[in-house]
Design goal:
Shape: globular
Structural class: alpha/beta
Radius of gyration: 31 Å
Strand content: 5-15%
Strand order of the largest sheet: 10-11-9-12-17-8-18
CATH architecture of one domain: 3-Layer(aba) Sandwich
Helix content: 40-55%
């Protein structure tokens, strides 16, 4: 088979743009046999942005051949070839136009895209951008955005894909072909050709233990691979200190560069003591402490010594994965006795094999090619995964929607009746967590388990909460209720999407094959239910539209820092027009009842004869969707009644997606009593840790939010109530005095009114430009406002373009934090502007980051409904809400932002704080006092760059 791998560089992407360079690489019988490249005279001037991207300017193409001369040389190379490209639609459009202009017939051969193959064959590849894909595959790409270089690496990627296809199990290849069978595309033709070639070389081995129900899997039945629980004769030492010394010696032998960390040793002792005494512990441990080993080692020691399970909960899935991939394997290698660790996530993170099989068999691909590619990606992944966890996959397009339709969930689970039960990924994870000594989970699942009366997680009395500064926020979210416009719409669509794939349609089609009286009656029930559901959908659209109009009519509803409209609802002061919604909501409840009652009766009647009518799988999924519909009904009813004074209610929507982005939200105002009741009271020991728990060296704010009391003043009081909390702030492992300078330009303007903001932004662009030129980029700028970020991005990009310094903006160049961080690190002279998620969890160690600029102190918008409701509660208690809530929240966020700069003992850099409130106000001291001891100086803006230059020279940064 001959492949022609094509790439064009052009003046842009519109119909009036022109080709400026051609690159073609020819592959024959899996070897590169020919190459062609040429510059092309475009007949128009090349834009500066294209020159900056490609390095091609007007001078270079001045003597280049015209397009028709290049086409005359290119066309023979395309003869009898399959055209291949990376995002081939772009190159194909330019090729067809060039052929037409040069007097040739259009290209009518087969066309394939490397991006499609990469998505399917490398399911975890995090970026399909050409340079990133090359990095992932270990293919050097020396001249990105040059057509000959791009065509060459695309050809190498294609060869790698061909090799990968050949290495797949034959059954996977056959299934891949069937996924595209109804699509009549060139990709289906290609997969069929590959499948035929493989069948000639490798007949299908039907006895393979990897094959089950026409799928090639990596894993067998769970519970059968149980390892012998031989722990040897080793016993753990009597005291944790003696054990820890022996463990450190093992670390010294394993790592030549190992050094004791004072803060980590202190943390280990405090955790060990808290577990031993059955006390709660709140421990702040900064970056570089080694928190994970700080709590894992004493927790494992205690759990194994006392034969009790310890649960570790994180806020982010990323940290869960880090513990699984890095810390647990190290401990397994060095621990003197064997132990079992398991990771358990929320159920929706695991694939339901029954649903996936049904989706493939029914060819249920709502989003056409996009769904087929995702299904192909998952077929390949099933031959590799041991966990069936969506974190191993990287979805693009509408892949995440496809996942939602095949994810595991409790309501549609057949449990032991499912043919896939012994291979089920969720039940495997649950089985392993029940058998484990330490279980790693996340805050969300802790609260899901709490709401499910503790039926999900294995029983535990000892809990470690990492990233504990998020615990109260996650509690509020999970103990509240939320209904999105698409949430109810999607449930309705799952029931009656169309004649072939809606669950009720599929059930009716199955029942209609039986001509007995019962089946006909059930078909009539389905028809009546669908009628009511269609009416319900119309009413939901009407309600959502009216709620959006009510939201948009309130000029104070817009949240300045986002494109969201937000409106709080209070029972005693409802907005005008609310009463008119009552009739519509009442009608909806009538139609909910008229649809749900017959469906519940239908499910009950069919349950007894499901095998006779072969509807078991359909009934299970339908039952799950009916329960989802009941939950939507209950949430809508709870929300519209606004009946619980302990909750805050609000509606929000995007200004562009309008009613389709509508959300109804209700959240408990204060969760401290619930946290105390369900965690701190019944558990023997809860360890809470984070780098940011204290405010001004005090833990009072965090304790109050979580419903905890600090340690009693006297030993007698402690003895009387040993369950009390101990708080510890560990010393920083870094020498911040030498590693970081905090510079505050004291004459920088404040923001007062719209004119004040314009002056602030203009001055900020100038100052950031001067600093970026001095530091040669290597700068992260943190904003609290998306609007301000975009304004600064545009001005800063213009100022720095001629100096070769790249400016990247969150929500401008990409919304993907990981992608932006990679781009920032791969280009040494960059300025990265971030908001929201960049304030924490971003790790950029080393020379890539030298300067951190904090534009504004990260106060939450005071008019956000939850902040407003908490403020009202504090005022009722005659407390200063600003000092008790707003300042502590902002200080913790500020400390998270500051923590982006120094990530290792060798990192050095400057923090610029453009908000003069830290030195002009009485509360400013709480921000500076909470920092871990950097050098703090304030100066005029004109002195800023000279001081940065001096500090960098003195510190070799």
């Amino acid at each position: 088979m001959k492949f022609a791998v094509l790439d064009f560089e052009t003046t842009g992407s519109t119909s009036s743009d022109r080709i400026i360079q051609v690159g073609l690489t020819v592959i024959h019988d899996q070897e590169i046999t020919d190459r062609y490249t040429s510059l092309v005279h475009p007949g128009i001037s090349i834009p500066a942005s294209i020159t900056a991207l490609t390095g091609i300017d007007d001078e270079m193409v001045k003597e280049a051949p015209q397009l028709d001369a290049v086409m005359a040389e290119l066309v023979p190379l395309l003869d009898n070839a399959v055209l291949v490209g990376h995002n081939i639609a772009f190159d194909l459009a330019f090729l067809q136009r060039a052929l037409d202009e040069s007097g040739y017939f259009p290209f009518d051969g087969r066309v394939l895209d490397t991006m499609d193959l990469l998505r399917m064959l490398y399911p975890g590849m995090s970026s399909l951008q050409l340079t990133m894909a090359c990095q992932a595959l270990g293919i050097p790409h020396e001249r990105p955005h040059q057509a000959d270089s791009d065509a060459e690496v695309t050809a190498l990627i294609w060869l790698r894909c061909l090799q990968r296809l050949k290495s797949l199990p034959l059954l996977t290849l056959q299934r891949l072909e069937t996924v595209f069978a109804d699509s009549a595309t060139d990709l289906h033709w290609f997969l069929a050709e590959v499948r035929k070639a493989q069948e000639l070389q490798e007949p299908l081995d039907l006895d393979s233990d990897r094959y089950f129900r026409q799928f090639a899997l990596r894993v067998g039945n769970w519970g059968e691979e149980e390892e012998a629980a031989d722990a040897g004769d080793t016993e753990l030492p009597e005291t944790f200190d003696s054990f820890n010394e022996a463990f450190k010696e093992a670390l010294r032998q394993r790592f030549a560069a190992y050094e004791d960390r004072e803060a980590q040793t202190l943390m280990q002792r405090e955790v060990a003591e808290a577990l031993k005494q059955g006390r709660h512990l709140m421990i702040e441990a900064g970056t570089g402490t080694g928190k994970s080993l700080g709590y894992l080692i004493p927790s494992l020691y205690y759990g194994l010594k006392h034969e009790t399970k310890v649960l570790v909960s994180t806020h982010t899935i990323n940290l869960q994965e880090q513990l699984r991939e890095r810390d647990i394997p190290l401990l397994n290698e060095l621990f003197p006795v064997r132990f079992k660790a398991a990771v358990l996530k929320g159920r929706s993170h695991y694939l339901c094999l029954r649903k996936f099989e049904q989706k493939i068999n029914l060819q249920d691909f709502e989003n056409g090619k996009d769904d087929r590619i995702t299904a192909g990606q998952m077929l390949v992944w099933l031959g590799e995964t041991e966990r069936g966890d969506d974190e191993e996959l990287h979805f693009s397009g509408k892949g995440s929607f496809f996942w939602q339709s095949v994810a595991s969930d409790a309501d549609s689970c057949l449990n032991r009746q499912c043919p896939w039960f012994k291979r089920c990924f969720y039940h495997r994870a649950k089985y392993e967590s029940n058998a484990a000594d330490v279980v790693i989970t996340n805050h969300s699942l802790l609260f899901t388990d709490m709401k499910a009366d503790n039926r999900i997680l294995p029983g535990y009395k000892h809990l470690v909460i990492d990233e504990a500064h998020h615990f109260e926020e996650v509690a509020g979210k999970h103990l509240g209720m939320e209904l999105h416009y698409q949430g109810l719409s999607n449930v309705l669509f799952r029931l009656y999407k169309d004649a072939r794939t809606g669950q009720l349609s599929a059930l009716r089609n199955k029942l209609s094959r039986f001509e007995d009286e019962r089946a006909m009656a059930w078909c009539s029930t389905v028809d009546m239910a669908v009628e009511k559901l269609i009416v319900l959908k119309e009413e939901w659209d009407q309600l959502a539209e009216q709620l959006y109009q009510l939201l948009a009519a309130r000029s104070d509803a817009a949240q300045a820092e986002s494109n969201q409209l937000v409106l709080r609802l209070k029972k005693e002061a409802l907005p005008r027009g609310w009463d008119s919604l009552a009739v519509l909501v009442d009608n909806m409840h009538i139609h909910f009842k008229e649809a749900l009652r017959p469906l519940e009766k239908l499910l009950s009647e069919l349950k007894d004869v499901e095998d006779e009518y072969d509807v078991q799988s359909l009934l299970t999924d339908l039952g799950g969707t009916v329960k989802d519909l009941q939950r939507c009904r209950d949430t809508l009813q709870f929300f519209m009644q606004l009946g619980d004074d302990n909750y805050v209610y609000w509606i929000e929507a995007g200004q562009y997606a309008k009613h389709r982005s509508l959300q109804l939200v209700c959240v408990p105002i204060d969760v401290s009593a619930l946290l105390h009741e369900h965690f701190f009271k019944p558990k023997e020991s809860v360890i809470l840790t984070s780098a940011t728990l204290s405010v001004g060296k005090s833990f009072d704010y965090t304790c109050e939010q979580l419903g905890l009391r600090a340690e009693p003043a006297s030993a007698d009081a402690a003895a009387a109530d040993p369950g009390k909390l101990k708080t510890v702030q560990l010393p920083s492992p870094f020498n911040y005095r030498k590693q970081a300078l905090v510079a505050i330009p004291r004459d920088f303007p404040s923001i007062r009114g719209s004119s004040g903001e314009k002056e602030f932004v203009d001055r900020l662009i100038l100052s950031l430009t001067e600093v970026a030129l001095e530091t040669r980029g290597r700068m992260l700028v943190l904003f609290t406002s998306n609007r301000m970020l975009k304004a600064v991005h545009a001005g800063l990009k213009d100022m720095l373009a001629s100096f070769g310094i790249q400016v990247l903006g969150q929500g401008v160049d990409s919304s993907n934090r990981s992608k932006l961080t990679r781009l920032f690190q791969s280009h040494p002279e960059s300025v990265l502007l971030g908001t929201s998620s960049f304030w924490e969890g971003v790790d950029i160690p080393g020379d890539a980051l030298t300067c951190l600029a904090i534009v504004r102190l990260p106060f939450q918008p005071p008019n956000h409904p939850l902040v407003e409701a908490k403020t009202e509660n504090l005022k009722k208690r005659n407390l200063n809400a600003f000092m008790k809530l707003s300042v502590p929240q902002a200080v913790i966020r500020f400390k998270q932002g500051f923590g982006r700069l120094v990530r290792t003992a060798s990192d050095k850099g400057i923090v610029i704080l453009y908000d003069t409130r830290v030195i002009d106000t009485s509360y400013g001291k709480y921000f500076l006092y909470s920092l871990p001891g950097p050098k703090i100086e304030h100066m005029t803006t004109s002195q800023l760059v000279p001081r940065i230059k001096q500090w960098m020279e003195e510190n070799g940064s």
